[in-house]
Amino acid sequence: MSTKAAFIGLGVMGYPMAGYLQKAGYDVTVYNRTTAKAEKWAEEFGGKFAQTPKDAASAADFVFTCVGNDDDLRSVVLGDDGVFAGMSEGSIFVDHTTASAEVARELGALAASNGIGFVDAPVSGGQAGAENGVLTVMCGGSEVDFAKAATPIDAFSQTCMRMGDLGAGQLAKMVNQICIAGVVQGLSEGINFAQKAGLDAEKVIEVISKGAAQSWQMENRYKSMIKDEFDFGFAVDWMRKDLGICLNTANQIGASLPNTALVDQYYGDVQAMGGNRMDTSSLIRRLRKLS
Fold first, then answer.
1. Are residues 157 and 178 in the same domain?
2. Domain range spanning residue 149?
């Protein structure tokens, strides 16, 4: 018999991730707040859909979630129609939401009291990574729970690593977002400077991308940044949510994030310009407005 899995949340990340699970041979049932999207997924991938998170999770060996934030996660996990109400003892819950370490520990403790394993497993790689099945997954949880979860996670990832106990996956994702914020701001300033200096920005990037300045953001975003095109990828609204989590956690643990705080303000400027849904590389548009 096929291993049963449930996937809750069919956004730009969850939709293809659930599809890869189905393609890998898992018997997948999905749930989405917009039922039409769940129906579309079931038709495309040959899986099933349910009307509530509880029904989707019923009899599942693994339950995956990928929703918006802490409150969204609690809304699909808790309550009479929540995931935990449908899960059985011995099953494993894997959360791919980028959320706080606190909510991972909170829900992980509740899961443990019901005999359910819990792994917080935020991802990096963006929409393209999800669609191509090559995400990077940072996990927190016990070694036993992680060992069980790693096999199905492999269906849509190229790298999956345990970072420590519950919450460690979320903390690692915060490091990821902190680093990206600084890189995107630096790349924005560099491209804007090159253009203001009268250089061929594409040639400049072609040269420096072969040296120490190279980054994923440079390789994948420089052309669209030069063209002032930002209607794809990871949205500014989502990045501000993530950076807010980073800054709140930094205050709790006594870590200084001056650059992250500044870039977060810059993203606020982009939002004020109407760029809420633009890709995060739209930071350069703020510089162009100031020039």
1. no
2. 4-165
Instruction: Judge contact between 152 and 221, C-beta under 8 A.
Output: no
d(CA 6, CA 94): 10
The structure's pTM equals 0.95
Handedness of CA 233, 209, 207, 210 (dihedral sign): negative
Using DSSP's 3-state secondary structure scheme, residue 5 falls into: strand
* Model pLDDT, residue 219: 94
Gap between the Cα atoms of 289 and 282, Å rounded: 11
Determine which one of 23, 40, 148, 173 is catalytic: 173
Which amino acid belongs to residue 198?
A: G
Strands 123-124 and 135-140: antiparallel
Q: How many CB atoms lie within 10 A of CB 3?
A: 15
Distance CA 20, CA 14 (A): 10
Contact 94, 119 (CB under 8 A): yes
Domain boundary among 136, 165, 194: 165
Determine the average pLDDT of the residues in 49-60: 98
- What is the residue whose two structure tokens read 């019923």? 58
In DSSP notation, 54-68 reads HHHHTT-SEEEE--S
Express each pLDDT in 177-211 by its tens digit.
999 999 999 999 999 999 999 999 999 999 999 99
Return d(Cα 65, Cα 94) in angstroms, integer: 7
Q: Give dist(CA 66, CA 15) in Å, integer.
A: 9
CATH number, domain at 238? 1.10.1040.10
| Cβ neighbours around 71 below 10 Å, total | 10
Write down the pLDDT at residue 105. Answer: 98
Q: Cβ neighbours of residue 277 under 8 Å, at least 6 residues apart?
A: 231, 235, 236, 237
Can 37 be counted among the known catalytic residues?
A: no
